[in-house]
UniProtKB/TrEMBL annotation, chains A, B, C, D:
Domain Gfo/Idh/MocA-like oxidoreductase N-terminal: 10-140
Coiled-coil blocks: none
Pfam families linked: GFO_IDH_MocA, GFO_IDH_MocA_C3
SUPFAM superfamilies: Glyceraldehyde-3-phosphate dehydrogenase-like, C-terminal domain, NAD(P)-binding Rossmann-fold domains
Source domain of life: Bacteria
GFO/IDH/MocA-like oxidoreductase domain: residues covered: 148-278
Name assigned to this protein: Gfo/Idh/MocA family oxidoreductase
Signal peptide segment: none
């Protein structure tokens, strides 16, 4: 029998992600892919029947299938083989209370983004995680793509020189029509201000901001935004356009849209420095375009000799064998596992392990709030003091 | 002997474009490509020796090689076989006086862009052209690409529904270093405020604006801009980022940069409507991506059955035989020729002939001025009342 | 505790795939990704120490870590909780004896390709699998990509009309230099005729053949081949070029190369019929180009409404969230699991489940042998009677 | 008046290319684009009325509009301002008699391809051109693309090492249906064995061969071909697939098809050597992919610092301003002009001037004949002794 106490794996629980959910299944695959987690408990739905069906379908032991997250936190904390970490994949407005319950029970947290629907909650969680000494990872999953890691390291190593321009976008088309009015489940909560805390800016704009943030490493100091709601009857923004002033001198543009026909999940970035540029697109994630100033553009590919060690660390198979969204998500889980396995043994985390934390999650929520503030003020320039 | 009075061709003169110039040679090829113009006179340089050498090298008759544009206007107007139109390809600050001289001599004008270095001059030229009843074309050449014509017609025919988002950029890298300080001729005048009237915004931002303008057909009503000058010692902007509010409800972003390594001449646009989208990139101009909402993206190609009549009108050879920059520039000249040949015969211009005029040139200069005003005011939103 | 007897999962063993192996790790991820297999036993290496280290590192119970595959077959067959299926991921020459041992023990087989190093062995395995009534899957993994399934269905549904031309290639560059002489493990056995049974034709040409075979559905009746060995000192072919005559009237070309710089794993195919064409490339697997004759090319994308049900069955996440090599490999494992879970319950396999079997594996080996025969005969046309 | 005797231009005549022709108009634009030719005479059609209308529409003097090519050759040879060169753009079967007439009149010849419909005629023309000391250029126009020149030079300079594999194709779709039976003029003569001398192999396969030939510089020594005629009722091949053995050790594949939906004019080549590879596609001709072995692929672009001098010589405008089919055709005309202008002055041709000659044209016809011989013999390997 395959032992769930095998020391090579972290015992994991999940809140949310039951029948019909999208991101819960993604987290489960991500946790499983590299075999560093074993899902052993869950409160997969707030509806008891659905919670039970979902848990059993995943092979959970019946006594570890919960309908209530607070009960789950208490019960698992009391077991000797209780979960070590919990993945929170509920709609956004539930992240804060759930995360709080598990942190208070001494359980590490892996939480979907945006981490909360307001910065006060995010600050509360940050303080609580610090106080309890628990890990709090936020799944800004796009930052774990190998070639994003490659890009980040190139910028840090100065290979692009001084960064001048950042151009990032995240374009989708799935909300180009008012499908939330027809009961589409994903659309319904993601366009509900109460449950989502914002529209395109929170759902995907935050990913775009974070992608730029992780690569460029400069804080945004001010921004001006157009917050658009194009689809009739929609209660949140479905398109947002932002000018950015970075603290290190870079200037940027960010576009996030869910009403852009022809773009399924088109997150892409260009970073332009005094010595060269990088271009990367999430839909073809294994390739990074690098142009050293005055030379031909190079197609730097994951899994080849040209990929640097930061990329190689989170890569599994050779170049030309495409890795995708699930692999990157799994890489983020792998980073968390490396940290937790080390912590369990009292070792320091391996060097170079990195993942977005509640600090980054807080800054993301502050960015969302600044964009909303600017948008509601007719696009006025709005200062941003991050992470305070 | 091939007769320069062959009625199928317009007798053309040129001011500027002598030895070492880039855009003058482009205009000459464009005029010649479809065999509708015959270059017969020129003041190709303000330096008499250079003017003479340049004219003779082009096969001009010695008595029609001029060193002074004003003398050329007078002399050609007096000849029975004098030029019918003049192409003005000098640095920007000379456009206005040269155009004025030829208009006053009753000669049609084809002028490079931006048409003037300030809107007052553009307004003066507009009024003068109206008063004298002369044609005044401005070579916003990118609007003559066949698939831009195709796109324009699709939008006008309502195939994209209501336009929501416009995303246009024009990125280059040739000014990423201060080459103007090393005497590079093109760089020198284009980064000199006195001769250019602006930097990236005037040189290429104006093309980006015009491309969006010709396709979308909505006026920009307000904008907010970051006007950046990244290269040390540079006297003009070399990068500009703009948020746009269109009069018809669309919202847009424009990025023009001359310091973006990896982009040679990357003018591209995405237009997103309620029923579908279009994407076009100047560096692969024969293909237009069209996504009808909810359907796969189609690659619509110039020279095939899928290209509409607006594209076919300005296309020469079958799909897969790439046409490029010179062909599009020639298409613009072809439109002017069609107009002038009809006018010469007292016929109305053929239906569907179109080219940017001094009205468009004026609006382009007003756009430049608004971007500069916003940029100098820290990115403040600036209203734009065009073409008045 | 997570029960390895959870009925939703197949109990799996593995032979080969220990330390330093590539494809063994791929099979394990593929088996795990969709949570339909639990790896519970293994003979991961023929060296006892390596077998033990590898097994324990994967969390196998010590008593189910074997050094000898024959002992493993016997021991597992004797357990009530013994493995239901075995994955064989050894070098090619060991496939036949290992598969035979497990079939004779009544255990289902999942075997890497080429299934054997000669067709006599493949025929023996086919007969044995039939006789014992065991499933025998061959991991021609590329056939499980969603858009390959889409393509296959389109051809079967007649949407391309009569198939005229098939153009398939599989180009790599990792053997462009004699790295096998420097002890690179993968290169060493793959270029050893005794262990590999052939070079590029067996390692990747067989994938190319199978990709065409699964989409086009016509048998190859004759072929002419150039079997090249470009790298000095290499004992097997590293490049092969083949003309193909299909039984249904199509004509084709196949190129497989391991000495083509610039190609990492560039498997791609074009299929041209009287009513349209399809083009697909493994390095960007989510997109399929479909050109209905006389119309623009469409980019049909996995995970969107345009993907047909054959694609949707083996797809997990929405379009624009790229799936890759591991997902396709997992899809093949998922098909096998669906078949085995049904068989375990005495149900028929779900409709539409499909995976390459020993019949396909045999035909692949016959193809390899025909290419070798033609190549050794100076490229002579060679008839091919498949699957007999 | 613009003097047709301007010494900077060659006086040119044309045979064929009247109303409704495609390639004649292309030759005229190509001759005109760089202003090194002046078209002054023509026998544009064998039908007198059409010849007259076509000539006058082009602005030719009435006395230099001919209905008979032989008369034109005589009359022009007798004029002091007679044509120096003639462009022959008739259907293929007329190339030989027309070229002969002009060579015998002492006039240089520029002839479309394939230069003749059989190698005996080509040999006759070669001998005649030698004997009369006249230039005989064959418009294998694709060899004049700047990045083809770049590629050719790289191979010659040894930057790719020893060439191993050549993969070339030319795929079109315009003959996927029997449009010749509906009177389409281009289709009618190109699918008529008497006028075309072959089908896809002659019309486009010859271009593919020549592209490989000019870059690789090794003679084909033997080949095996499938010569297919897929469209019902078609009298010539519409698809051909060839294995190639080069004299220098390279092995190759060539595919030419006019029944491949989705390909408009998709001529492309990959050349793989021991030190790296090149890939080029005619539909995006400004970019050449260069992969030095073991390094990332580089996108080498025309008009940038990375393009070598062989590319720069035949390039006009900066990178990112796309040049296309007409520019490359014009570059070939420019090479001929450079040669003729030097010859007129008694100077040697400038170094590096190169264009396909009757020697190349003869070898192309020999290649066609060998492919046809192999195809008619069921794909048998056929030796090829070129240029004898």
């Amino acid at each position: 029998m395959n032992d769930s106490n095998f020391p090579g794996r972290i015992r994991l629980g999940m809140v949310g992600g039951g029948e019909g959910a999208f991101i819960g299944a993604v987290h489960r695959i991500a946790a499983r892919l590299d075999d560093r987690f074993e899902l052993v408990a869950g409160a997969l739905s707030s509806r008891p029947d659905a919670a039970r069906r979902s848990g059993l379908a995943l092979g959970l032991a019946p006594d570890r299938v919960y309908a209530d997250y607070a009960e789950m936190a208490r019960a698992e904390a009391a077991r000797t083989d209780g979960i070590e970490a919990v993945s929170i994949v509920t709609p956004n407005h539930m992240h804060a209370p759930v995360a709080r319950a598990f942190l208070e029970a001494g359980i590490h947290v892996i939480c979907d983004k945006p981490v909360t629907t307001n910065s006060a909650d995010a600050r509360m969680l940050r303080d609580l995680a610090r106080e309890r000494g628990r890990l709090f990872a936020v799944t800004h999953n796009y930052s774990a793509y190998p070639m994003v890691r490659h890009a980040r390291k190139m910028v840090r190593d100065g290979l692009l020189g001084e960064i001048r321009v950042v151009n990032v976008r995240y374009a989708q088309d799935w909300l180009a029509e008012p499908i939330e009015q027809d009961g589409q489940k994903q659309a319904a909560w993601r366009t509900d201000p109460a449950r989502a805390g914002g529209g395109a800016i929170g759902d995907i704009g935050t990913h775009a901001w974070q992608l730029a943030d992780t690569i460029v490493g400069q804080p945004v100091e001010a921004l001006a935004a157009q917050l658009n709601s194009f689809v009739p009857g929609r209660a949140v923004d479905d398109d947002v356009q932002v000018l950015l002033r970075y603290g290190g001198g870079a200037r940027g543009m960010l576009w996030a849209s869910q009403v852009a026909p022809g773009h399924a999940n088109d997150l892409r970035i260009g970073v332009y420095g005094s010595r060269g540029s990088l271009q990367w697109a999430q839909e073809t994630p294994d390739d990074l375009l690098w142009t050293p100033l005055g030379e031909p553009t190079r197609i730097v590919r994951r899994g080849t000799a040209a990929a640097n060690e930061a990329a190689a660390r989170v890569s599994r198979i050779p170049g030309g064998h495409p890795e995708g969204y699930l692999e990157a998500f799994a890489a983020l889980y792998g980073e968390v596992a490396a940290h937790l396995l080390a912590a369990r043994d009292g070792r320091p985390a391996p060097p170079d392990v990195e993942f977005p934390t509640i600090e980054d999650g807080l800054r993301a929520v502050e960015f969302i709030e600044a964009v909303q503030a600017s948008g509601f003020a007719g696009g006025a320039w709005t200062a941003l003091t991050s992470g305070t």
